[in-house]
Amino acid sequence: MTEKERYATIGTWTELFCREGKTISENSVRNRLNECCVQAITGRSAVGRLMRNGFYAESDVRKACADLLQDIPQADEGGFFEEGGVIFCSMIALSRMFGISSSAIGSRILAAKLQPKRAKDAWGRVQDFYPLNEVERLCADLTEELPQADENGVIEIDGKVFATKNGLAGLLDISEGLVRARIKENKIQSIRGKTIHGPIFSFYSLSEVEQCCHDLLQDIPQADDEGFFEKDGQTYGTIVSLSRLLGISAHGIRGRIARASLVSVFGRDSMNHNRLLFYSLSAPSH
């Protein structure tokens, strides 16, 4: 006579697995059952409460959770376990330990083809763990003593402020493309530093970049909602706003401007975000 199949709720199965020395969360079991499209049956609890689709067959549960029920190492709540004298860490634990983003560590691990070891975290979820000594070696340059940016993205050294190209663009309210071009044109030297999340970038002196971008930092007019502003008695608009006003395609206006060698001026859009080129609605050619 074959042994009769046992059915129980997810909570009951996790308690049973715990008694067997396998710590698995109810969510983990539920997720595996959903992934395997396991069907439950309706039954009554010990107190007679009807539970629709609340009971799962033991064979189905053990099959769906086979990897979680393996005799594999389990990490502590810090994300570590030791095996054979080697300490293994989860990606989150490594990131927290080194102060480096998981993506930065992951790219080094991927490039080195470092093989992970499958183990459970403190809550029974199976994931990848990596040998601490190998990751330390791969990320040696990321963990060296370098200045690190604050929450505003800047590094201060001896009273001088440094920021990345992207950070400088935000600080100066200039496009990153213009910042990059001016840094290259003026051959501004960089220093190496870490962002607040750990990855290493080139940082540049704010004062030096301000100096080479002085013409871009002058007060410039701001357009209205229609895309125009007044300056020295003349009306200026972008190609888009002029196209809309004159009923001529932007391509046609751009061609006429080029042929007439019209001089442009800088202005900002109505939201004061983007630095754009504006042209006089009635200016003569030069």
SSE inventory with pairings:
Blueprint: E1 7-8, H1 10-19, H2 26-35, E2 41-44, E3 50-57, H3 58-64, E4 80-83, E5 86-90, H4 91-98, H5 102-112, E6 117-120, E7 126-131, H6 132-138, H7 140-143, E8 154-157, E9 160-163, H8 165-172, H9 176-185, E10 190-194, E11 200-205, H10 206-212, E12 228-231, E13 234-237, H11 239-246, H12 250-260, E14 264-268, E15 275-280
Antiparallel strand pairs: 1-3, 2-3, 4-5, 5-7, 6-7, 8-9, 9-11, 10-11, 12-13, 13-15, 14-15
Helix pairs in contact: 8-9
Description of the molecule:
This protein is an alpha+beta fold and 286 residues long. The protein folds into 4 domains: 7-64, no CATH class; 80-143, Multidrug-efflux Transporter Regulator, Chain: A, Domain 2, CATH 1.10.1660; 154-216, no CATH class; 228-280, no CATH class. The protein is built from 12 helices and 15 strands. The strands form 4 sheets. A 4-stranded antiparallel β-sheet has the order 4-5-7-6.
Throw out a few tags for this protein:
286 residues; four-stranded antiparallel beta sheet; Multidrug-efflux Transporter Regulator, Chain: A, Domain 2; 4 domains; 15 strands; alpha+beta; 12 helices
